[in-house]
Design brief:
The chain has 381 residues and is an alpha+beta fold. The chain folds into 2 domains: 6-158, no CATH class; 200-365, no CATH class. It is 16% helix and 47% strand. The protein has 3 helices and 24 strands. It has helices spanning 160-199, 243-248, 365-380, and strands at 6-11, 18-21, 25-29, 32-34, 46-48, 52-59, 76-83, 88-90, 96-100, 112-124, 128-140, 144-158, 209-214, 217-221, 225-235, 254-256, 259-268, 279-287, 294-296, 304-310, 317-318, 320-332, 335-346, 351-363. Strands 13, 14, 15, 16, 17, 18, 19, 20, 21, 22, 23 and 24 form a 12-stranded mixed sheet that branches. Strands 1, 2, 3, 6, 7, 8, 9, 10, 11 and 12 form a 10-stranded mixed sheet that branches. A two-stranded antiparallel ribbon has the order 4-5. Helix 1 packs antiparallel against helix 3 (365-380). The longest helix is centred in the middle third of the chain and has 40 residues, at 160-199. It is elongated. The chain starts with 5 loop residues before the first strand and ends with a helix.
Length: 381
Amino acid sequence: MPTDSIRFNRYIDDSDNYVSIPLSDFRYLENTRLKSRFGWLSERSLEQSDSISTILIEMNSFVPDGEWRDYTPGSFQLAFELPNFTTEVNLDTVDLKLINHYATRGGTNDPTTEIEGTLRFSHLENKKILIDGKISVDTRKPTTKQELLLRNALLRKVSIEQYVFEEEEKDRIKKQQEEEMFDRMMRVYSIQGQFYDSIFSAEQFPNNSIWIQGKKLRKHEFKLDASYIVAGTRISEEPTDNLMELLGSSIYYPTDGTDFVFNFHHFDEGDSNVIDDETNYSFLFSLPELEIRTYDIQDEQINANLSYWHYGPMGHVIDTKSATGAIQITDVSNIVEGTIDLTFKMTDKRTMILTGKFQLPLVDKSAFRELAERMQNEANE
């Protein structure tokens, strides 16, 4: 975390406002010199030396979460060599190795960079060192400013062997944490999958027959899974920010409100001979009440939303711009049945048509609260 002795400040949009971000690494590498100046510095970039030590300053996206999170994109790494037991250095006099992705976030490849600063070193017993001073890194085209303030920052003098060991240990712990997180995430999604399988399946509701077609889209069946109706809700105003949901579940979703939300989900496998041809579809509409009648969605201002995400490197959410057509409710028992005949104008300039009949369960909202609690408890274990 940022402290009074070590503070890395990143200024915001060419202003006097800044945010302090914790460094991901700050080391005094004793008897170590730079073997390579290409790319991100790692243990492979270093070699033993009898007379040279290296300062390494680094901020990357793996810093802890905090109020600075929105300003961490754009990694920073500065390294330079010094003769052993140097007591003061002006950065104008040393050969600096700098990676400053903060200045190249917008696609600029070669901003004009100016680095200034003076550091003072007090070499202590027991392989310790105090560092005092300031480093400023300014760029033009684009204009950015970052600074490192050091007030008697206490560091260990670390050998190259210690550095390699600590980096390997850090990688081992990170890999273990990632494996544990993945395993926990799979357990959470297993709970979610079991829940949706329990409320809806093609065998339980065999009368669903919905078809989708559009420009450059073959007509195919809109086969449902994880589909239902829930009362006391409304359709979310924004798509989910969960990538797993965007790729394989509801893109928009029911949230607290006063309507009946009909949530239809369809995952299209696409052409098995084409890589990344899958498409995740999410279709929702909301009604103020459940009545056996026909609803003209344009005249009655019924909220109907079709969205989808096509796999591939350019994948993103395609939304509904406008919708017309009719929804007919034919049965309002515990199994709600009806028909749809809807036309959607999409944000990718395509026209999509959904037609057919549906049969969905009416699920109590409390079941989703219980599901959320179970998933949260599993995630926290």
